[in-house]
Specification:
7 strands, 2 domains, Immunoglobulin-like, 148 residues, 2 helices, 4-stranded antiparallel sheet, elongated, 3-stranded antiparallel sheet, mainly beta
């Protein structure tokens, strides 16, 4: 038996399928381990983390956001990226048939290893992708030792 913590903040309407087709979609999405559409309505940007020989690279998918709308903070060894994607003002002339874009505040936190150079952290935003580059400290970079 699996014990699951009760979360009172979930909307019950999003938990119960409205149609048989939606129930099947949910079943197969969960069985495959993927969710094609996040029905929770919460905006949580996708993240890729890559380790290179001399640095770590974090790429966050933030389409539609400007760099001024994003905050990056480092406290101890926790890097936190946060911001808010705001919805457009409601346009009475448009008739929406499907809205899958998620809006709202987001926060993503990552525990960094101790072997980083804290002064080397750089961030750049291009085409909706935030790239954060964190160099490893000199001691952490592997090197080949010559036999004398």
């Amino acid at each position: 038996m699996t014990l699951v913590r009760f979360r009172n903040d979930q909307n019950l309407d999003n938990m119960i399928p409205r149609t048989f087709s939606e129930m099947l979609d949910t079943f197969f999405d969960n069985a495959a381990g993927t969710r094609a559409i996040d029905r929770s309505g919460i905006f949580q940007p996708g993240v890729d983390i890559v380790e290179h020989d001399n640095k770590f690279e974090i790429q966050v998918s933030l389409p539609g956001l400007k760099k001024e709308e994003i905050s990056i903070e480092l406290e101890d060894n926790t890097l936190t990226i946060s911001g808010e994607r705001r919805s457009e003002t409601e346009d009475k002339t448009k008739k929406y048939h499907l809205v899958e874009t998620r809006y709202g505040k987001f926060t993503r936190s990552f525990t960094l290893p101790r072997n980083i150079n804290r002064d080397s952290i750089q961030a750049a935003m291009e085409d909706g992708i935030l790239s954060v580059s964190i160099e490893k400290s000199e001691e952490a970079v592997s090197r080949k030792i010559q036999i004398g």
